[in-house]
Amino acid sequence: MKSQVTFLRRKLSPYVHVAAAVILVFLLIFAGIRFRSWYSLGENRRQLTLVNAWNPVSETGYTPKLVSVEGGFQADRSCADALTRMLSDCRAAGNKPQLVSAYRSLDEQLVLYDGEVQRRIDEGKSPELAELAVRREIAKPGRSEHELGLAFDIVDADHPEEDASQAETPTGRWLAENAWRYGFIQRYPENTEGITGYSWHPWHYRYVGEDAAGNIASLNITLEEYINLFYGDEAAVVYEDAG
Ligand SMILES: [Zn+2]
To answer: What pTM was estimated for this model as a whole?
Structure first.
């Protein structure tokens, strides 16, 4: 009896090993696929982190992973290469893009915001009116996308004005046409203040990844609308109605 079992075991053992190896390989492939989709979903969610006047950075659970980019600026590492490629292709097309702002810490945002309010007070506005005017232009500290390391202000070096005229510069036109190919969107388009909370910022670009940027560009919608459309309830987007 014993020798029969040993014989059987010997006879089966090569097959058992082969079967075990095959099962193991399948399990590894399966786990790999699961991990990849879980990871890319996580990355997608990260890139689509919504920050606006009604969704502060502190409630997103987002922490930037900073790396250096040109001009002594810092960006989240998920988009640093895409930003570099976009700026270099923009230059290769004969334009002069200049990065003037990238990642800003909460403190830097605070200094910027308070400085702009003070500048308007110095010009003769009341503190209330000064703050109201600044709020349309600059995010309150803790509510700026720049704190994510995913937003960039890019102007034309020959015309560095941060106003609507930036859209008419060669750089502004090239970016409006091509940024989506690199995963960037113009975050505050014309006539969307009721949704985004900000006036038209043709110099402010936000990284959302190539898929989302392509969809947003072809549908001609804002990030708020895109998240509502594709992620619905899960994303819990809050924004005030226009009007
Ligand atoms: Zn900006």
So the answer is: 0.78
